[in-house]
Amino acid sequence: MKNRIISRDELAQLIDRLVERVDVYAPVREKNGANWGKVGSANEIYLEAVNTHEPAKGFLFPRCEMILKFDQSGNAVEPGLPQEQVVFGIRPCDARALMVLERFFTSEGKTDPYVQARLEKMTIIGVACNRTAPACFCLALGNSPHSSEGMDVLLTDLGDVFLAEPRSEKGEKLIAGLAEAEVKHLERRTELKERVESEITGRIDTTRLKENLPKMFDDPVWERLSLPCINCGACTFLCPTCHCFDVTDETVRGNSARYRVWDSCQFALYSRHASGHNPRFNPAFRYRNRVMDKFYYTTEQMGLISCVGCGRCITVCPAGIDIRQTVATLLSFIDSTER
Amino acid sequence: MNNPYIPIQMRIERVTVENDARDLKTFDLAFVNESDRENFKFIPGQFAFLSIPGVGEAPFGIASAPHEPVIKFTVKRVGVFTTALHEMEAGAGLGMRGPWGNSYPFEIMPGRDVVIVSGGFSFTTLRATIAHLLLPENRRNLGKITAIYGARSPGELLYKDEIRQWEQNPDLHLVLCVDRLNGGDWPQKEGLVPNVLREVGPKADNAVALVCGPPIMIKYTHPVLKELGFKPDQVYLSLENRMKCGIGKCGHCNIGPKYVCKDGPVFSYAQLLNLPAEY
Which residues in chain A are closer than 8 Å to B276, comparing Cβ atoms? Predict the structure, then answer.
């Protein structure tokens, strides 16, 4: 697959052509930065923010989604298939998160038909990060602000033009016909990559987590780590890889349908049995569940850490909990027990 | 598209009130479509979701054995869904999704004794298990079958007619017990399940124990099984956790990295020793 060069004008034209044919979602300007929006033209796209307020997981797994409706005799009927969509301007951390979700929903046990259907109808055009935010720590998770993992095309802003790297057949087709990239473009890209990577100061050491976390279920450290947590669940809703959902029925004017909506393991109701018994009655158990899930459970289930280092849970937490600090504290406890 | 969220159509054939408190009912369900009946293959220990349009759905252990003509569920009335279900009568339609989860470890039972320990209305999948094991083609491969089944009071025991027949069955050593007696005639044992288990004292050599009950019963049954010589890999427990999807996606039912719906609901005690006590 050939790397190509696309000018700003050509990119705008490409997007405007896409908009005529399919739904295009991209970062748009919002009060305090950027968030995802459906765009009617390339002019509306805003790439100046380091990342969008919300992650991109809603494109695969919407916040609220009908999973079936009931006909008049009570038979369950599948909802219509999703529309084709282009997700433009996704950052490498969020694209990796979509890959994590794809893996979770389609290759671990049963396939989720709705995520599968959306995947088939989705084109992902990412834009590399040339700047970082204070909470970014993707490097620590083996990712990079210039990674193309999980994308059809990765664009890198080289200043005057964008470098376009296709990563799938779909992506290759999309940029076919553009001028081929030259060595100077690739050199410029490497320069930018090295510079931005050096700017990421957020670091966590994940090497010793997998072997040590399983021994730490009953460690009193969880009480201390979770003490500031108010169980608001904001970290889970904004986490690009959190996938939990609740299922609920709704009836409007005699028409019933079943929906799934995002849920959070930080809520006490999440794990409460009908009998009232609750295996995670203590907020510390719930905080432990979230941290363990990201850094240990998914390594057992899928062989990967499911934190991508986007930093949203850090910036959004009203209690100031920093997952980098949590991991550092856990490591210091491991060290002190080993001593 | 093979969609695991779409329930198949069932019809209620019969509703039986099981207990004096009248909050436990057994629903015998028949398949509306012949093709669904052919495709629904299950093993005792598995569960399914029942679905009522506009109300919701909830998971229940399958209380019937595969050879029986109806699919049976025994449901306690506790919340919105189960209250709506309890209001339904024979002839009504409802949805079913499943079967989900693993089963009791029938593959390791031939040549061994089977000890069944159950308390309260969790007896459902163990009722299915007993019915399955008592089939001549299964029974002839097994050693002694001991079943200890307890409830709060005599009127709270499930499947009373069937239990009466099983008491006469020489192929099964059935021990019934109740937590306490408030007078009345009760020729069986009085006492909590773990204590009765100790008293009955089934041999651990070459035996498999299947346990299902409320968390408190499970907690006090373990030490007794250990006393009797059962090793962690000889004890199997059927667990319940809150769940929404049944296929390992919604997240709710996890015990550490395992999902009760997909990796369970039956776990060996040896497995559980390596997991947090989130059940």
Answer: 217-218
A259 part of contact set with chain B, CB < 8 Å: no
Superfamily (CATH H level) for B8-100: Translation factors (2.40.30.10)
What are the residue ranges spanned by the domains of chain B? 8-100, 106-238
Tell me which of A272, A273, A292 to substitute to probe the interface with B (most B C-beta atoms closer than 10 Å).
A273
| C-beta atoms of B6 and A256 within 8 A | no
Judged by a CB distance cut-off of 8 A, whether residue B256 touches chain A is yes
Beta bridge pairs of residue A86: A24, A123
Structure confidence by residue, pLDDT tens digits, B212-271: 998 889 999 999 999 999 999 999 999 999 999 999 999 999 999 999 999 999 999 999
Is residue A294 within 8 angstroms of chain B, CB to CB? no
Residue A169, CB half-sphere, CA atoms under 13 Å: how many?
0
Domain limits, chain A: 4-199, 209-338
Task: Kindly report the CATH number that applies to the domain delimited by B106-238.
Answer: 3.40.50.80
- For residue range B114-150, list pLDDT tens digits in order: 999 999 989 999 999 999 999 999 999 999 999 999 9
Q: ipTM of this predicted complex?
A: 0.91
Q: Which residues of A27-65 are buried (b: 16+ CB within 10 A; e: fewer)?
A: bbeeeeebbbbebeebebbbeebbbbbbbbbbbbbbeeb
How high is the mean pLDDT of chain A?
A: 93
Name beta bridge partners: A318. none
How many Å lie between the alpha carbon of A292 and the closest alpha carbon of chain B?
8
